[in-house]
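Retro notes (design track)

What went well: tokenization of the new backbones is finally stable.
What didn't: we kept losing track of which sequence belonged to which structure.
Fix going forward: every design gets posted as structure first, then sequence, in one message. First example under the new rule, 526 residues:
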């Protein structure tokens, strides 16, 4: 009778059992993953081999480390985990190969929301065959051997050595990161068993994403009943260095440059170099209030109508009047920009016109200039700077073509923002404003770095210098008794300015409001 001992003579040792089961899981149960990787690389090239080896290393080291940790807790738990995931892996492989599904968060949500009557239709003899041959039999073989030796020190040492060696290899093989980042969403849905484990957790975390447990900010009071509409556009990966409004030589902001009442805030830095951290800052009054209710929740609680529209992700838990994802808007959208950020404008101003509230706050969380596929972030009309990098491994592109592709995304953002301004200008009998600020910047090959996410302490300024713009209607300037031509800016700005400026625009007097952080507050009025 075949047993694990035949396949691995030293399997009676926990360290060997962990190694064998990890290799088996990495190779056998990730067949779909390896097919995908091989289809999307040139294996005959050094770059292709480097990518394949990096993906293999990531999958193996994650599995090996996790199994080692389970062994340190209990061998029974380890064997139970291996057996259960082996069976589920077999079922997952069947559906992935039969229906070409990717087990991302959305798919896991679909699975958990499938009714019994619908799920029964997916059962078949082939599924049963796959579950038995690829799942139950290997699972039985993996739990059958008796592990006689558990040297916890050796298990821990092996896991540590594996981690260090793997991270060293991945660091030296950094050129493959760009390909992995480009395909991350697909890879994450194909790696077994982590795709369905992690994305199941993400699905339920999104269901439970609530403001419960957040601390409430102190109550405030609206000091006027003026009709006020503020649109906050949250940019993605836009760096101020490539905005012609900030002195960049290429004309990336031709439409914004023609707008009156446009305040260009200088020396603005992001709190972090990643989206979730920066959004937390952007929606809080100070750093110490990060774990309190966010700006949209605070405004909603004070009677402001708040609608959050997103073509992105990463915002903290919020309570708003309406939360709308881009996919919900696309069926009603028309035009070439419906697969881009322009989808967020779908029926937006009908929402404003139909509202009975005096205070309306609209947040548009855009995809912006997110890389590495910059060339996919704008329509053909804005492919003005050429040649353009169209390689998923942007380090292979010439610096000129890479920057051209990125600059085209800024040109598209220019068009997107002016479209909003023009709509706001057409609204009569209301004070209106649009604020634009990016979550963080981007590296485009400077110092050998690409993209963003470098730890803040070491991140170059390119990843932290962000654009911060505010357009205001004449009515709002009159209401606040402001003259932008004489308004004195602070020496520097941050994402915390957002909270206080928006409170000031709505006339919400609050104990947490700081006039010195409201960029539309003129100190001469005090």
């Amino acid at each position: 009778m075949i047993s694990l001992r035949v396949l691995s003579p030293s399997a009676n040792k926990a360290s060997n059992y962990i190694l064998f089961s990890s290799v088996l899981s990495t190779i056998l149960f990730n067949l779909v993953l390896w097919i995908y990787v091989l289809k999307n690389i040139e294996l005959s090239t050094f770059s292709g081999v480097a990518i394949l080896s990096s993906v293999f290393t990531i999958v193996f080291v994650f599995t090996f480390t996790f199994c080692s940790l389970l062994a340190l807790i209990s061998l029974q738990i380890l064997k139970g985990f291996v057996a259960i995931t082996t069976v589920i892996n077999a079922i997952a492989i069947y559906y992935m190969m039969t229906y070409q599904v990717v087990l991302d968060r959305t798919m896991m949500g679909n699975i958990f929301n499938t009714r019994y009557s619908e799920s029964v239709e997916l059962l078949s003899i082939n599924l049963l065959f796959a579950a038995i041959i690829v799942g139950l039999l290997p699972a039985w073989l993996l739990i059958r051997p008796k592990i006689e030796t558990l040297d916890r020190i050796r298990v821990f040492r092996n896991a540590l050595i594996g981690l260090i060696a793997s991270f060293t290899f991945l660091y030296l093989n950094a050129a493959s990161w760009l390909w992995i980042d480009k395909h991350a969403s697909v890879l994450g849905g194909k790696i077994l068993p982590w795709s369905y484990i992690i994305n199941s957790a993400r699905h339920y975390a999104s269901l439970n994403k609530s403001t419960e447990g957040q601390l409430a900010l102190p109550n405030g009071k609206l000091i006027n009943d003026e009709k006020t509409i503020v649109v906050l556009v949250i940019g993605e990966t836009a760096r101020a260095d490539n905005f012609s409004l900030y002195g960049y030589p290429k004309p990336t902001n031709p439409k914004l440059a023609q707008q009156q009442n446009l305040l260009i805030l200088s020396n603005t830095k992001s709190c972090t170099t990643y989206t979730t951290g920066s959004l937390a800052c952007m929606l809080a009054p100070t750093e110490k209030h990060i774990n309190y209710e966010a700006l949209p929740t605070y405004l909603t609680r004070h009677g402001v109508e708040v609608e959050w529209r997103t073509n992105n992700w990463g915002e903290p838990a919020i309570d708003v009047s309406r939360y709308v994802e881009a996919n919900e808007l696309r069926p009603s959208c028309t035009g070439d920009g419906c697969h881009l950020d322009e989808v967020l404008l779908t029926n937006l101003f009908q929402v404003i016109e139909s509202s009975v509230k005096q205070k309306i706050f609209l947040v548009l969380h855009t995809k912006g200039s997110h890389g590495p596929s910059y060339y996919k972030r704008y329509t053909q009309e804005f492919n003005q700077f050429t040649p353009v990098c169209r390689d998923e491994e942007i380090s292979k592109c010439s610096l000129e073509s890479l920057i051209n592709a990125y600059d085209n995304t800024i040109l598209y953002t220019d068009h997107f923002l002016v479209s909003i301004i023009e709509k706001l200008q057409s609204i009569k009998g209301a004070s209106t404003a649009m604020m634009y600020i990016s979550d963080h910047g981007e590296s485009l090959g400077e110092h050998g770095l690409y993209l963003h996410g470098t730890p803040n302490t070491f991140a170059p300024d390119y990843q932290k210098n962000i654009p911060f713009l505010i357009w205001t209607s004449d009515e709002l300037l009159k209401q606040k008794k402001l003259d932008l031509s004489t308004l004195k800016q602070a020496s520097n700005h941050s994402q915390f300015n957002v909270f206080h400026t928006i409170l000031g625009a709505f006339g919400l007097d609050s104990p947490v409001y700081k006039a010195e952080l409201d960029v539309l507050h003129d100190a001469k009025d005090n």
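Added context from the reviewer: The two ends are 89 Å apart (CA to CA).
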